[in-house]
Amino acid sequence: MKIAFIGLGNMGGGMAANLVKAGHDVRAFDLSEVALAQAKDNGCLTFTTAQEAVQGVEAVVSMLPNGGIVERVYTSDVIGHVPAGAVLLDCSTIDVATARKVVEAAEAAGYAMVDAPVSGGIAAANGGTLTFMVGGTDEAFGRAEPILQAMGKAVIHAGGAGTGQAAKICNNMLLGIHMIGTCEAFAMAQKLGLDPQTFYDISSVSSGQCWSMTSYCPVPGVGPQSPSDNDYQGGFATGLMLKDLKLAMEAAETAGVDTRMGRRAKEIYEAFDAAGNSTRDFSAVITEL
């Protein structure tokens, strides 16, 4: 299949490469010359504008920084420029309202479109083991699913347009809360004289077990390999976690939901980010405790 890929950052670059590995003809665009050069090395055909990249394709996949950019790219460079009948897949993490607005605009122009944000981080993007949470019609999901499967281990239809984004921000709000709690528990255990590995051995098979402990432990040398073992480099940046928590709080306010733990997690990550930790993995918040 001929696929345009727009947005070749830390996540998008690996995703585009996996589409090439799956046998697709990938036409890539990014504002970064470095990202374009890497995409070319990975087997993509590169272009200097998004409008050029989408010419003649059967599908468009995007991985962009925020909702404003997603709306601008689709309304200016994709809708009306990509051939009729193409399926559009936005894998960015953005607000629910903008996701639905863009999907509505695409559908009004005769395209099938899904919002399909991801979970898994850079390693999963490179390894093709992402989880996709997909919002859209049954028809749009059916057309998007084979493309997403080339980049992930799980592709889940969450419901109508915008529900992929809803699933993503709810999941990451829970992740942010869990990580802070895990960090606090390890910090307290150490202050009380308990060895971190011993606490891990106990809690990982007890009621306190959670993904932040057993799969992504914030303490170096404890549990499976994680960013904490690499001085908190790589993984899921604090700035990205903060972005998702802000989106979650905006959605909670719109929906009238009391998310006091989510709000407190946002405040903690805001302070951590402001202290110069935006690019460090979000588990590095343990260093402040």
Structural class: alpha/beta
What would the principal axes of the Cα set say about the shape?
globular
Low-confidence stretches: none
Mean pLDDT across residues: 97
- Give me the count of strands: 9
The name of the CATH superfamily of the largest domain reads: NAD(P)-binding Rossmann-like Domain
Gyration radius (Cα, Å) is 20 Å
Beta-strand content estimate: 5-15%
Overview of the structural elements:
By secondary structure, the chain is an alpha/beta fold. It has two domains: 159 residues, Rossmann fold, CATH 3.40.50; 123 residues, N-(1-d-carboxylethyl)-l-norvaline Dehydrogenase, domain 2 (Orthogonal Bundle). Helices cover 50% and strands 14% of the residues. It is globular, with a radius of gyration of 20 Å. The termini are far apart.
What would a concise description of this structure say?
The chain is of the alpha/beta class and 289 residues long.
Key descriptive features of the protein:
289 residues; Rossmann fold; N-(1-d-carboxylethyl)-l-norvaline Dehydrogenase, domain 2; 2 domains; six-stranded parallel sheet; three-stranded mixed sheet
Please outline the helices and strands:
Blueprint: E1 2-6, H1 12-21, E2 25-29, H2 33-41, E3 45-47, H3 50-53, E4 59-62, H4 67-78, E5 87-90, H5 96-108, E6 112-115, E7 118-119, H6 121-127, E8 130-135, H7 138-149, E9 152-159, H8 163-191, H9 196-203, H10 211-214, H11 238-255, H12 260-277
Parallel strand pairs: 1-2, 1-4, 2-3, 4-5, 5-6, 8-9
Antiparallel strand pairs: 7-8
Helix pairs in contact: 1-6, 4-5, 8-11, 8-12, 11-12
